[in-house]
Amino acid sequence: MAKSCKGLAMELVKCLSETNCVKVQKRPYKECAGETVPCITSECVGLRETYFNCKRGQVDMRARIRGNKGY
Q1: pTM for this one?
Q2: Would you call 66 helix, strand, or coil by DSSP?
């Protein structure tokens, strides 16, 4: 279960690496991940929300019994 969100994390990093926040402004991924839609694409925002829900599912006891939905 620890690696069930790994695919989402890799896609999020790939999406963020293509944004102006990382390319032009040379800011770290962590800073750019917290930005809103004008700075990063809506696709990256959607991936960030999905990744958050995946990580939250790892600590939710109900999801731990059933298993994380993963990716």
Answers
A1: 0.76
A2: helix
